[in-house]
Amino acid sequence: MNEEQKKEFDKMFKDVFGWIKLKEVIQKANPEIMELKFGCKIIWKPSEEECLKDKEGSHHRHYTITRDDLTQGDAVLGQSTCKIIKVMEEDFADTSYRTLYNDDIVKEKGYTILGRPITLADVLLALSKAKLDYEYWVTSDGHFYHTEREDGDGNHEISPTGEYYNLKEDLDNQLDETKQFLINLLIK
């Protein structure tokens, strides 16, 4: 690996690590993101044994929760009723629906909870909980602003940061510059 390739690899690693860490910080600020509720994304990775049983070849299955308000009276675990969630399987060929029991998702080997998409509200909550030098907010057209310093009368000057948040998209679909801005603010 030459020096240029090494620099490119180091940058890519730093970007991926920063992105993962940013999501963790926001999820910590709002743990509800990871709850098994409507919109939560789940991945199931089959075991080697299940792969051998499946003639078509098992693969990772991606699910999105579509309903989380159902319960099954027959499935009693101790004193509580088992909660059922309906999920949509996002397959390459088509979309199908199936029922999963949320206790299974948490306990069964092979499931990974990715959480629901991170919204601007989640980002703002994380910013409000972070110990930052400035207070940040987003205008109704998606531009970030922050307070600067107090003048002699105790007023704060307001300054644009130059960053933009697309209000129609979740965090995954924001510009790389916006993600890097948030990484720089929230990752210490």
Structure description:
The chain has 188 residues and is of the alpha+beta class. The protein folds into two domains: 3-33 and 118-186, no CATH class; 38-115, no CATH class. The chain is built from five helices and eight strands. It has helices at 3-29, 48-53, 102-107, 120-129, 176-186, and strands at residues 41-44, 61-77, 80-90, 95-101, 111-115, 136-138, 143-150, 156-164. A five-stranded antiparallel beta sheet has the order 4-3-2-1-5. It has a three-stranded antiparallel beta sheet with strand order 6-7-8. Helix 1 crosses helix 5. The radius of gyration is 22 Å and the shape is globular. The two termini are 30 Å apart. Residues 73-81 have low confidence and may be disordered.
Describe the structure in brief.
By secondary structure, the chain is α+β, with helices and mostly antiparallel strands. The chain folds into two domains: 3-33 and 118-186, no CATH class; 38-115, no CATH class.
